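stage 2 :: seqdesign
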């Protein structure tokens, strides 16, 4: 018999970005039995304003961290006992991909790895 998967601690990367902030808010409000961990480095496209109203929710935690830093990410996974990841973090502005293509690629590819 297979046990049904039930997430308990969901880590969402890029949670202060436009799309992911809506996902974070939805999960915090509709899944109170889950702990929602938001990891964002608060880059140029992030906005904490979009997360107003949930920052004090008992099932919500926020970390300012860079997903390309494996030591910090490992520490978060160990401390929080993360069992599920929703990965939204990325640099998205096309102009940046031309102006600093190495950093753009490093963030989007290495950060996913």
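stage 2 :: out
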């Amino acid at each position: 018999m297979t046990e049904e998967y039930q997430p308990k601690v969901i880590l969402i990367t890029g949670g202060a970005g436009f799309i992911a902030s809506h996902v974070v808010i939805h999960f915090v409000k509709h899944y109170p039995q889950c702990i929602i961990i938001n990891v964002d480095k608060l880059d140029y496209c992030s906005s904490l304003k979009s997360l107003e109203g949930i920052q004090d929710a008992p099932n919500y935690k926020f970390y300012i961290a860079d997903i390309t830093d494996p030591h910090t990410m490992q520490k978060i996974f160990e401390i929080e006992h993360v069992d599920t990841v929703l990965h939204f973090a990325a640099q998205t502005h096309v102009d940046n991909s031309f102006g600093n293509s190495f950093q753009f690629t490093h963030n989007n590819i290495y950060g996913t790895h």
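stage 3 :: structure notes
- The radius of gyration is 15 Å.
- The longest helix spans residues 18-30.
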